[in-house]
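Exercise 3.2. Students should predict the tertiary structure of the chain below and write it as structure tokens, then compare their answer with the key that follows.

Predict this chain's 3D structure.
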Amino acid sequence: MSEKKEYKVIGTRPIRHDGVDKVTGRALYGADFQTSGLLHGRILRSPHAHARIKSIDTSRAEAYPGVKAAVTAKDFPTVEDKVADLGESAVNLQDLQGNILANKKVLYKGHAVAAVAATDPHTAEEALELIDVEYEVLPPVLDVREAMKDDAPLLHENLKTSSMGETADTPSNIASHLQFKKGDIEKGFAEADVVVEQEFKTGTVHQGYIEPHNATAMYNADGQLTVWCSTQGAFTVREQLTELLQHPVSKVKVVPMEIGGGFGGKISVYLEPVAALLSMKAGRPVKILMNRAEVFESTGPTPASYIRVKIGANNDGRITAAEAYLAYEAGAYPGSPVGAGAMCIFSPYKIDNVLIDGYDVVVNKPKTNAYRAPGATNAAMAETVIDEICEKLEIDPLDFRIINGAKEGDSRPDGPVYSRIGFIETVEAAKEHPHYSTPLEGKHRGRGVASGFWFNVGLKSSVTINVNPDGTINLVEGSTDIGGTRASIAMQAAEVLGISAEAVNPTVVDTNSVGYTDVTGGSRTTFATGYAAYEAAQDVKRQMIERAAELWEVEAENVQFVDGVLSSTNGKAESISFKELAGQLREPVVGSGTVDPEGVGGAFATHIVDVEVDTDTGKVEILRYTATQDAGKAIHPSYVEGQIQGGVVQGIGWALNEEYIYNDKGEMTNASFLDYRMPTSLDLPMIDTVIVEVPNPGHPYGVRGVGEVPIVPPPAAIANAIYHAVGVRMKELPMSPGRILKRMGKI
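Answer key:
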């Protein structure tokens, strides 16, 4: 594959196909859905972080005027104690069901207990107060290290630690222990001239999507269940509903509405099964909307964590050994992204001797969910240890990364061997950028760098293409468009067919209207659904060649298709454009593509940040930020830049402001955008982006996913910059003003 290959569509910046509807307000989101006979649902949530449910009585609520149905966990059918694959993640069905409506215990404040459907939202809200629940309050455990202690309150009496194929004899809050080992760790540290070991603590952080969760369900008398919702994967919702309700998959249709952000938090279901149960009871469609407090308290944030990292290097600047201990909070049920964190923590580097231990631990907080490179941002705090080593060895931190950076043929600590990757190229791009060589002047200012990795995923995608008589095509796909993927997918089909991006009409459809497609997540959509679009376009191309051959009465092998023009190669001077031939078709041309690609190609990034610290208040100002990242091939550079900038901004939020704050009772005290402090445009400079293109050999156009790795380096880069500004190493996220002043000894 030539890195210099020229494309007609790929690499350009067309206007996104759904742009007009979204900026004019015509695009329909989940809360916009209306239908005749619509009921409104509301959910009663636990006021306690940990309690046994002694009884639930919904009779007074059901008798309230306007109330048409009420449900509790008892209305769910019994499901198996088994793990179901949901595309980007896997989940135990009993745990998932228990998270949607609590059964014997509530495990966090905000845990759903019961629900009602009424003729209007106000009546439904009033009816919640008539549901009688008797609790036996239990002590909560809110910190991962406290939860791991032998005498900690148990969330699940039947949960026993699974450790590398063995199951413990006694119950514990530690759901699982994993280990990755490579080489001889003791020998590696013995060879080191410098060894640095540090501990880190990170807070619970929410994805912060602007649109709250929503779902409308309609159950027909013929057994057909239709759900309209905001989701990152309509097929994943269908699979969860099928399993949780024990309802035939052929009788479940999910219609994805436009989505106002997700970042991983809109993969698991929360409202959809409840709306379905209410609709089944009431015989009418039911809509449920969350308010912002419910989103914070009752949906899946990223895990808080405790991490211990030890790295050794010799005087030549070569890493000789690295060791990590990662304990991640899973929330109320097992399933933190500690595995992904362990896979990513040392992956930018070639290290011969590695030992990584990861622990998945339940606590009395909402069940964690994916959030943009889940687990990797926590783990990347190890990059501050790299900075300490560079300081001790007096080596430039970017030169250190060039010495130790992973290349093609190197293996990750968890086993996989890299194909062609571009980590070194991102470091070189950062080093060559004017930002890195520009002097940083002024008091209490510092510059930091950090790198990050995300492995990306492939998974399944399907696309169909219909050719229209005017030379345009209708492209039907199943991937929710969160960041412009209608355009990036359409552009790959357009490139194959030699037509403009504007000649493609992409549509995201329901689960009955396209082949199975996994979630929009894992940085897979432009890669995998784009690959399916490429294959569907190749199918169309083949059929158009056959139609041209019939028209000219030649063999198909004597027709070539180049840049949207078909021509004869057997001596006849015949040619026709794609548009002209489309207008002469007597039979429809429909192409299809279904893929499950393996060559995903990991993504790397290297970031530079300048900060200024106010030593009186502890406030950190971001002065300048530059992110270099390997995109493989940027299909639509504007959207690649946007993904990088968005990830950086969220990473800055992790670094400086964002965290769940709990009191001793396990109550979140900042469950609003007023008190949960996310960065705004007033807090940030322009984020400079440098797109590095080292083509991924596993994709026809060299694409690598780009959406997740940009959130990984910012906290560590900012921590390094703070150190170079005021001389203190920050070890806890977020690095809020109070924590900075405390580390400086001022409070």
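Discussion points: Residues 19-27+458-595 form a domain with the Aldehyde Oxidoreductase; domain 4 fold (CATH 3.30.365.10). Residues 241 and 273 are 6 Å apart (CA to CA).
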